[in-house]
Amino acid sequence: MKQLRLLGMHQSYHAQLELPLDKQLDSHELIGSLLQAEMLNRANEKTAYYLKLAKLRLPATLDQIECSAARNLTKAQLSLLAEGRYLNQGENILITGATGCGKSFLACALGHQACLQGYKTIYLNLNRLIEKITLSKLDGSYIKFLNHLERQTLIILDDFGLAPMTQEIRLTLLQLLEDRYGRKSIIVTSQLPVAKWYEYINDPTLADAIMDRMTANAMRLDLKGESLRRKKSKTNQ
Question: In Å, what is the CA distance from 11 to each residue of 15, 22, 24?
Fold first, then answer.
């Protein structure tokens, strides 16, 4: 079993051998138990691998998300997102709200859930995306970088609107959205309301194309309420 890398089966079988003979499973039950153990072990290893590659900024999970009328986020909305149907349907999620309201935390929790469900995920804030695009242009790996992003079922683009948008970023963003439209998802977080994104992109032709692909098939979440950072600080005091 070890040589075949059936680690889940090996651990389960070893546990069985340590039991008294009258407590051990019969052959049919044992085979079923071993297979279940192997499937669970492989699923856990896959999740751990996807989480490592995702490089989520925050260790957030959906059960940590606070839902309330004050936050403008309901349990029904969160449950719908947790099911992951938006990933199967290639829908985007646009999360807006003031600084500290929990946009990035929610985005990372959704990224964590996507990894649990077996979807390749990558987290990038806008500054990091700009840096990667600039470096890949310099070392000739730009196409390789785009192909890497295209393979991800979910891209989380955090802090959209904080850094100046250059022509390179506009064109790359349009390419990403074009490649993924209707097939794969992007989660975008921003302090700017969606109505201000056109102005932020600051190029009428590209803004039309980007906004059309980003918003046409998207769920919008506009988070409200007091800054969670200030709230946590008050609680600690």
Answer: 6, 20, 14
- Cβ neighbours, 10 Å, residue 164: 9
Three-state secondary-structure class, residue 221: strand
CA 77 from centroid of its chain's CA atoms: 17
Element (H, E) at 220: strand 218-222
DSSP of 141-199, one letter per residue?
Answer: -HHHHHHHHHT-SEEEEESTTSS---HHHHHHHHHHHHHHTTTSEEEEEESS-GGGHHH
Report d(CA 12, CA 38) in Å as an integer. 8
Tens-digit pLDDT profile for residues 6-35 = 778 778 878 877 888 777 766 657 766 777
Kindly report the CA angle at 153 between 149 and 154, in degrees rounded to 5? 80
CA distances from 233 to 65, 66, 212 (A): 18, 17, 40
How much is the mean pLDDT over the chain? 89
How far is it, in rounded angstroms, from Cα 76 to Cα 226?
A: 22
> Which residues, listed in sequence order, are joined to residue 218 by a DSSP beta bridge?
92
The distance from CA 104 to its chain's CA centroid, rounded to whole angstroms, is 10
- Count the Cβ atoms, other than its own, within 10 Å of residue 227: 14
Least reliable range by pLDDT among 33-47, 180-194, 209-223: 33-47
